[in-house]
Amino acid sequence: MEVLTGSDFEGLRQALLVGTARRPLVVPPALATLMADATELSGPALPLLALTGQRLRFERPAFPAEQALPEVAIRLHSDPRPIVPDPARRALVRIVESVGREWGGLVVLAAARRVITAGFRHHPFDLPRLMTVLKPQGDELGPAEWAFVALAEANGWTLGPGRPRHEVTADNWTEAPSVARLTFLRQRRALDPAGTRAVLETVFSSLPALVRLDVVNALAIRISLDDLPLIERAAVDRSEMVKTAAASVRARVPGAPDRTKRLAAAAACFQREGGGVAGKLLRLVGIASAVGTLTFVPPAGASGLRQGRGGLFEGFSLRELAAEVGVPVRELVGALPNEAAALPGFLARAVEDGDASTIQTLTLFKLLAGDRYPPGVELLDFVSSRILLSEEAAAEVLSSANWKDAVARVIDKGRDDGTLVFTAAMLSVAAMTAFLETIASAPGIAQASRAFADLVLGLGVDAPLSGVVRTPGD
Predict the structure, then answer these.
(1) 45 lies in a domain?
(2) Which of 14, 176, 339, 401 has the greatest number of C-beta atoms within 10 Å?
(3) Strand, helix or coil at 295?
(4) 313 shares a domain with 245
(5) Quick one: pLDDT band at residue 86, thresholds 50, 70, 90?
(6) For the chain, how many structural domains are there in total?
(7) What confidence tens digit (pLDDT) does each residue in 288-342 have?
(8) Is 356 within 8 Å of 329 (Cβ atoms)?
(9) For residue 99, how many other CB atoms are within 10 A of its CB?
(10) Nearest Cα residue to 263 out of 225, 317, 304
(11) How far apart are CA 234 and CA 218, in angstroms?
(12) CA 465, CA 116: separation in Å to the nearest integer?
């Protein structure tokens, strides 16, 4: 039979909608032969209306040939990463629905990041609720999430100031907001310090002051003597803030003028009680921890232990300071008071360096020092470092008396103040079963932390959460 045209079906559809009394049925020419045998009792009305109903039932709208699909829509659905597995997705929904208002956004952000860094993409239906917290900083978003950002922006959703509107690449990094730009440069430096420096040297003088500032700060990652010429150029920059940053970064260069002297002065503040001559001899043969307790004695007139500009530890990592003192990193950390202002600075430096071992040490010290496991608010610094506790470190935390007391306090309060769920956010797949066993006595209180554990177990894989993580010296 002949093909029915769109106008044929439109006439039948109108008759179906308004009634044949108001819109008489007209048999399309292509159906005239088939309708010829219709009985006088029923006429062609029922067959024609049945045909139209079936057409409407299976009709699918299509884009006109001249209207191409938007590029962002194509990117949203062509992301090669697999969609998050259903068990993990259900756990993520539970997290969104169960966390408290005071710290809920941070927990959802940590959970959403775990999905992406594990190599999955979020289900498109979940992106609207997740992107309120997963606003891009310039890292960790994949093609699907970036496409959703573009679609949302086109429909009036605002990211807020300082957020990138697109994925930051080698072609557009100079136009990106500062946080995204600095993140991109640091990641490039961690992967290829010499190659990144060579590119930056050629464009440095032509960049705006704020971009030059980020370039200088990025040079602190895997810094070496080879970076000194560019740092010296920045030290005489026309911008005061660039010159100030260059002075701070220059303090990190191994072998830079005055650095060795300052490092020795900082190391001299760590003394071992009862060491004496015998202690010195034992330390020379590598038995430092066997004699006396290592203590920290601030230099005369010191106003604080800050690690920032002008501080005692400016430019030094915890690892190199421990090497200068001649003790393990963990013993050096134990010599500092737990509330020392230098600890956040050392943690930030370890994150910048990708020094996962030092981050583990600092985290364990902060969690286990003293007689009280910290509540959720004190865990935020370590969750934000986005490096998971090793299986051994997690076992030490979960078996400690401090952790057991913390679980008991949460049960007494009748609510989780963040202690349980933020602890879960620091754990790997291997540690989650043991974690769930330790909170088994708090079934009605630990909904968010159980959901986070289910999310991690549903993903079934861990990934470093701070970009490139390497062993210092690599």
Answers:
(1) yes
(2) 176
(3) strand
(4) no
(5) very high
(6) 3
(7) 444 578 888 877 765 556 665 557 887 788 998 999 999 998 888 888 765 566 7
(8) no
(9) 23
(10) 317
(11) 13
(12) 9
